[in-house]
Amino acid sequence: MPCRLCRHPLGISDAVHIGPFPKAAQYYPEPEEFVGDHGVMLEIAECPCCGMTQLLNEPVSYYKQVITAASLSPAVREQRLAHFKQLRDSFRESPRALEIGCASGENLPLLRSVGYIAHGIEFAPPRSAPTLLPEGVTNRYLLDIGPEEHGTYDLLISFNYLEHQPDARAFLQKCHALLADSGKLLLTVPNLDFLLSSQSAHEFVADHLLYFTAETLETALRITGFTLTDRQIINNQYDIQIIAEKRTSGAIATSKTALDALVIRFNETLRNFTEQGKKVAVWGAGHRTLALLSLSEYHLITCIIDSAKFKHYKFAPISHLKILPPETLLDPACGIDVILVMVPGIYPKEVIAKIQSLPVSYHAEQFPPEM
Questions:
Q1: Shared-domain flag, residues 167 and 263
Q2: Does position 130 have pLDDT exceeding 70, yes or no?
Q3: 21 C-beta neighbours (distance < 10 Å), count
Q4: Do residues 235 and 328 both lie within one domain?
Q5: Are both 87 and 229 inside the same structural domain?
Q6: Residue 321 gets which letter from DSSP?
Q7: CA–CA separation, 306 vs 293, rounded Å?
Q8: What is the CATH number of the domain that holds 198?
Q9: Angstrom distance (rounded) from CA 180 to CA 182
Q10: What whole-number distance in Å separates Cα of residue 85 and Cα of residue 320?
Q11: Which residues form the domain of 302?
């Protein structure tokens, strides 16, 4: 089967087998079931690619549901309320919040008390008896939410629910899709580091398919488009709590904008010299320079000068400018007045000094200018 996070292939041979364990945390056999109740062997594997510890077992039948007898203690209530308040200050007016796996919706009044428009989703199995749902709660499963709600939530919260899911990647990718661009994710999961350090292998359970360390949780967030902004070990080290935000997208688009601006500056420089009647050459036939020339008004350039002998008398791609040796500049009749030095690193100053030492006078300057 593929890793539940990175999709790297995993096999039974990769697993450690422990058991027999109860076949589900919420399984309580009737006397007539005793004869067939032999438990299950848990097949626990650590992905060699992403490091995610996980069960290779099939999920329990009710993995979409939050089934718990616990209610919010005063301490947990105050802790969560403080986090909701802290995050509230970073959002617009009337931010929208969604709790994933909200059970009876106990967190929703807390969210509303500090200014959120709060909703929750809790899966109900088919043919279950209809019940009166708390305000704002709908019977849905996260991965069944359609694209019409993508980008609409400012805050997603999920407490000790992710570890039950058979596909961590799909779960977190859906969270990413549902969040607005400035949205944040607050979630908790059990802490595998504490389970291991306390030698508590009996904490493994068929219901929990995923076992996160602080490191693998950060990896899971990173590969699904999030940036971790806060991480705490809580609940006497039993749980990891994180706050993450959608990673800023468009880095390549931003780079393209910067490139467009550079081309404009280069063309303005070329036109400024040619309008003065100057003939312009470029020093440098590296890939950066050739790429920039291909985007520019290269018809305003006379030729390219480069020190690499294997490039001499060849032609640049797209611009088809001829690449000439530095000795060309020894001829006063070479038809060059200005040399734009376009080499990387520490070399521009050396090249300009070399040009200025020639017996023929040229105007030489670095492009783009040193910042």
A1: no
A2: no
A3: 16
A4: no
A5: yes
A6: P
A7: 14
A8: 3.40.50.150
A9: 5
A10: 62
A11: 252-366
